[in-house]
Amino acid sequence: MRVTNSKYFAAGLCFLLSSSGALAQTVSKDIAVSISSSNTSFTSYAETIVKTKIINQTGQTIKIESSQAIRIMMTHPRRYMDCHRLDCFAANYSPGQSVSIPNGESFEFEVNLADLYWNDVISAVQDFHRPKNMFRALPSGAYELSVESYLPASFLTPKGQRSVFRSSDRIRVTVYKTLMISFLTVRPIDE
């Protein structure tokens, strides 16, 4: 059986493509991310505040400088791993300023989910009405809420990786879309 150069080229290309994702990010066990919320039922008239905490145990100071270093995910509970249309929604959060977290310390912040710009992670169509679109973008229903940090690798890993990924625990929340209903009162006119 004769193997052609194109088969070698295709095999090499597949290897490079599959390994480039592994080089792009790595999971760090030395960073812990957690979330909590006093309210797990989110409506447009109720509080949608989530508390987030990042703990640094890397042995060095880490810096969060990127405006999209923190990603908040809402995913429908499902039996399959990948996201289908209307399954997974994401929003990016910026602390608003550069943050340094020394080794052994933590950084805590609150995020108002209703103030973020949410997108279906599968959709190619984007809603450009920034920023507050949570109750327009997310269908009503149960979700698993988590926070993902993508931190610059230069502070955390040896050469090779571009960012370090760490995901928080997941908490079960429910999003309810509410309708604004106004009532018109009709009274008879006195003569």
Shape: globular
Strand content: 35-45%
Number of discrete helical segments? 2
In total, how many beta strands?
A: 13
Helix-strand blueprint:
Layout: H1 5-24, E1 25-27, E2 31-36, E3 41-42, E4 49-56, E5 62-64, E6 70-75, E7 88-93, E8 99-101, E9 106-112, E10 119-120, H2 134-137, E11 141-152, E12 163-167, E13 171-175
Parallel strand pairs: 1-12, 3-13
Antiparallel strand pairs: 2-4, 4-9, 5-8, 6-7, 6-11, 7-10, 11-12, 11-13
What is shown here, in short?
With about 190 residues, this protein is mainly beta.
Structural account:
The structure is a single chain. The chain has 2 helices and 13 strands, in the order αββββββββββαβββ. It is mainly beta. The protein has a single domain (24-175), classed as Sandwich (Immunoglobulin-like). Strands 1, 3, 6, 7, 10, 11, 12 and 13 form an 8-stranded mixed sheet that branches. The longest helix has 20 residues, at 5-24. The termini are far apart.
